[in-house]
Design goal:
CATH topology of the largest domain: Rna Polymerase Sigma Factor, Chain: A
Order of helices and strands: HHHHHHHHH
CATH class of the largest domain: Mainly Alpha
Radius of gyration: 18 Å
CATH architecture of the largest domain: Orthogonal Bundle
CATH superfamily of the largest domain: RNA polymerase sigma factor, region 2, helix turn helix motif
Structural class: mainly alpha
Largest sheet: none
Distance between the termini: 49 Å
């Protein structure tokens, strides 16, 4: 959480450009990462991030600090734009990328071995192929918890669903992902 969010928003509403720059700089990477995990293309993620911040700027007067943090409010706007994009395309595109894999510590910093790097890339692609196959509500919960590292309470606020539902979706998503990956691994082994 950015200290002094309420005052920062007030300054933005009064036309202080430097306050807006602080908000974009502080939350921009988070919004971009969320976008990238859904669209899996840098150019689309950049466009979506820009759309998120246009929407944030247009609706800044509706931010209520007593209803939650500015970060959650921005992520909720991002989520809604992503849902709109999903509804337009009727399919989620591949999720993930190297940033996700680094966050999951799949990269071994101590061994710059090309073979190891290739294995890690293959593992990352394998994991993402399973994640993209999850139902949207399960995928969303897993991404927000395991990749975005949001707390259960933050996810509850963001999705506007009970905490028990959040935990259930995360658990079901993880179990479903594990089943998908086991099934895909066995299919790959049969082909070999």
């Amino acid at each position: 959480m950015l200290p002094g969010e309420k005052r920062l928003v007030e300054r933005c509403l009064q036309g202080d450009d430097s306050a807006w720059e602080v908000i974009v700089r502080y939350y921009g990477k988070r919004a971009y990462n969320l976008s990238f995990r859904y669209v899996n293309r840098r150019d689309e993620a950049e466009d979506l991030t820009q759309e998120i911040f246009i929407k944030v700027y247009q609706n800044l007067k509706s931010f209520r600090p007593d209803m939650g943090s500015l970060q959650n409010w921005i992520l909720k706007i991002g989520r809604n734009l992503i849902i709109d994009r999903y509804r337009q395309s009727r399919r989620f595109q591949a999720v993930g990328g190297m940033e996700d894999m680094e966050a999951m510590n799949l990269k071994d910093e101590n061994t710059p071995d090309p073979l190891r790097a290739a294995e890690q890339e293959e593992a990352a692609a394998f994991l993402m192929s399973g994640l993209v196959a999850l139902p949207p509500e399960l995928k969303e919960a897993v991404i927000l918890r395991d990749l975005e590292k949001l707390s259960y309470q933050d996810i509850t606020n963001l999705l506007a669903i009970p905490e028990g539902t959040v935990k259930s979706r995360i658990n079901r998503g993880r179990l479903e992902l594990a089943k998908l990956l086991i099934k895909r691994r066995s299919q790959m082994n049969l082909r070999s």
